[in-house]
Amino acid sequence: MRYVKPVLVALFWIVVLAFLHYTLPQNDLARITDTYEKRVDFGANRWFWTGADGSDATPATRDVFFVQTRQPDGDVMVYRNEDTGWGWPPYFKFDSSNVQAIASDLSSTADNPRWVAVTHYGWRIEFMSIYPNVMSIRPVEGPDVRLIPWTSIVILVLLAAIVWALWVRWRRFRARRIDPMLEDVGDSFDGASQGLSRRRKRLSSWWRGGGS
């Protein structure tokens, strides 16, 4: 049983970190090789797609924009380009058509590459046909540009501040309300235990006196 609590704590933080890693925006350096639109039939992976209107209600099938890229190390990365609308995550993206037009305009060949920064969220899981979702695309000077994820940093700082504020308030509430209550309960138990001990001593004395 002593391993149960550490395991539960570890699982909790794994879920939290996975959620943040999937949801927070990330930046990739890449060269766009192609853009296209394809009819997608949604199945078990529908949770990783948004609805046709940017909501969380994903239909059985619909057309989706895609952006194919090749990264500086030669790896291929394919992104979907969907509106998030008013759904989750709350990036309020409504311009997937504009993003697709920008991606098409910035496409290039290996002989004459044009490097871009692709801001996205999500994961690429090939065997489940899951793609990260493009949020924006902008041209950069080259494949060695340093990209600082300012948006993710700001969000993490705000989350840390909120968690810290809630923790401080919980500690104060516990010190004012819960700890005194527990002390009173403990004192009541101690008093009851002492009273029971005295009764046992009197009964034992009476029994020994009666026996003699």
Keywords:
212 residues; alpha+beta; OB fold (Dihydrolipoamide Acetyltransferase, E2P); 5-stranded antiparallel beta sheet; 3 helices; 22% strand
Q: Mind explaining what this structure looks like?
A:
The protein is an alpha+beta fold. It folds into 2 domains: 22-147, OB fold (Dihydrolipoamide Acetyltransferase, E2P); 148-205. It has 3 helices and 5 strands. It has a 5-stranded antiparallel sheet with strand order 3-2-1-4-5. Strand 2 (61-70) and strand 3 form a beta hairpin. The longest helix has 62 residues, at 150-211. The protein is elongated and about 110 Å long. The model has no long low-confidence stretch (mean pLDDT 85).
The level 1 CATH classification of the largest domain is: Mainly Beta
Give the name of the CATH architecture of the largest domain: Beta Barrel
What kind of sheet is the major sheet?
5 strands, antiparallel
Fraction of residues in H or I helices: 40-55%
- Determine the N-to-C terminus distance: 50 Å
What strand order characterises the main sheet? 3-2-1-4-5
